[in-house]
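Duplicate of earlier report; Cadherin domain-containing protein input re-posted below.
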Amino acid sequence: MVFTLIVNTTNKYQTLHTQSPLGESASSQTCSEATSSIPEYNHVSETDLPGTMIFNVSKPSSWNISYSISNPTGSVLPTYFRDFQNDSFFCFYLNKSLDIEELYSILGIELVMIEFSFTCDAVLKKMYILIAPQNEFDPSINISGILNIPENTTVGTVVYNLLPRTSDKDRPMTGTFMFDLTDSHFRIEGSSRGEIKLSSPLDYDSGQRMFLLHITVKDSADDRARTSTATLRIYVTDVDDQSPQYDYPGCVATCLFPEYTAITNLTFTGPLTVQPASIKAHDPDTLNFSIAYSFYNEKSGGSSRDDNSGFFRIDQNTGTIYQLKPASGAAWPTQRRLVIAEKVGSMQPPAYAVITVRVGSNDSSIDKSELPGDPKIDGQSLMPAVIAVSVVLGITVITSAIIIFTLCHRYRQQGIHV
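Output:
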């Protein structure tokens, strides 16, 4: 026996064709037989449309089949179902889609099964509808703000965890999130954990200032997976990790023990002119620590503004070297001092330079063009010349005196004879 039912669902009409099971006469059915024909478990997808048939059974003409929802109780779920019955059959179908996400927002539970009680002439039958969830929504990564990490971060450190920031509107979630990214400095170890780790060292000073990570996330590992992408912007911050560097001509990077030269004379005191450039150091980090200058103290093994001999003092702020007393009267060899440049308040080791001071001339002025190795700047090399000139002058004076004496003596003798 075949019946046609027109069902009104949300202002649309759907034709449902039902047939008495096995072609039996409905009037011959008993309530016991009718309820036993109701399937105990019925599977419905959460995306099934209103009007979808759940089941239909034959029934005795003298009795109607009634039903109620045993679990979960309430007034919401009954509105999702409808039935149609006449003297011959009972039809049970959806009135609204059993959208799990919608039901979660209403009921506050992830509903995947509904328990029904069907009754016909006091004959009870339990029936269960199992709601099959569908993967309807893309996963989402909520990345807000900017991530700053210091350049001295250890390789292997977890810098960001994606998992707590990843969500999926599907209820229940359709699977485990799988993360992926491609970058030479960062990696995701164990794609399901979502931990972004540093995979190679960072160096702010070499220009590694910002990284843009393109991240992919899937909400399951099967062919139903949905995928989305996100971008994480990472900024590298500078740290105090470098010693001072001297501003030495021709030295691009760090120069170990750059050598400076100054020329003095036997009477000079005051600031020395240093070649090839003034003693100056800077902080290569962007933190711009102040630089303090000093001499290495051989006696104490520390540093001080004055050198051991008392001849020199260095300005701790500018690096200018002052000669405190003249070199005359002293056994003056070539003077060499170790200059220390330190970043004030920093734990980084200092930088060292060597200053060589040599005697150049007796003139009160200093010849800035004189460099080590030029014989004119060696005070001892001038002594033979000074002695030779003195001897020549002495001989000349004595010879002149003898000549004058002889001429005078002869003049007197001639006068007497006259």
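The chain has four domains: 2-132, 140-237, 245-377, 379-418.

Merging into the original ticket.
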